[in-house]
Amino acid sequence: MTNTFLISEAVLRSYTDINNSVDSELIKNSIRESQDIGLQALIGTVLYEKLLDLVDTGDIDTAPYSNYKTLLDKYIQDYLIYASYWYALDSIYLRSRNNGLIRPEGGDNSVGVERELYNVKRQSVKNKMEYYSERLVNYIIEEQALYPELNSSNKLYEQNPDYTTQYGSPFVFRKSGYLEEAIRRGYPVYDSRYKNFPPN
């Protein structure tokens, strides 16, 4: 797990409705999880570690690395705001204690949120997270020449970028014969990741 944060706690609080009374440690852990689990899966281990190194050394603000600065400021941070919030919601809603899982009640006049309302809130945050993850992945696919680290992983423990989409067609062709048959019958078939290429 990393100790380098690509967004700050202050940014997360200012762009979401996370109250200032929420424990800073919960926020920091959610940022770390969103980076290590969510972001690393999207952009791959090698590019992820390159960004962490550039932030650690301060080189990300220098001219030779302006493309990485653009990636971080315009795409990654938007994704991390909602991914961190999504990871934080479980800890905000439920806490582990010696006597098991408890739901914090807050002050004397606070009323705990019912699970159904919590699920609605979590789904709303997830929808925003997925929008920004789709935007991030589309950008790195289009601009992958700027980021040679995307396809340079050669170790088992390094993740490759996940370019799959869960927002495209509900029809999944598992065998190539079905794909060719759909094209032969005139169905427009294309990969939603590459919108600039016309359907077959």
User: What's the story with the biggest beta sheet?
Assistant: 2 strands, antiparallel
Percentage of β-strand residues: under 5%
How many separate domains make up the residues?
2
Q: Which structural class should the secondary elements be placed in?
A: mainly alpha
Terminal CA distance: 44 Å
Number of helical segments with 4 or more residues: 6
CA radius of gyration is 20 Å
Mean pLDDT, nearest integer?
80
How do the strands of the widest beta sheet line up side by side?
1-2
Uncertain runs are 167-171
Task: Indicate the overall shape.
Answer: globular
Give a count of the beta strands, DSSP E runs of length 2 or more: 2
* Amount of helix: 40-55%
Give the tags.
200 residues; two-stranded antiparallel sheet; mainly alpha; 2 domains; single chain; globular; 3% strand
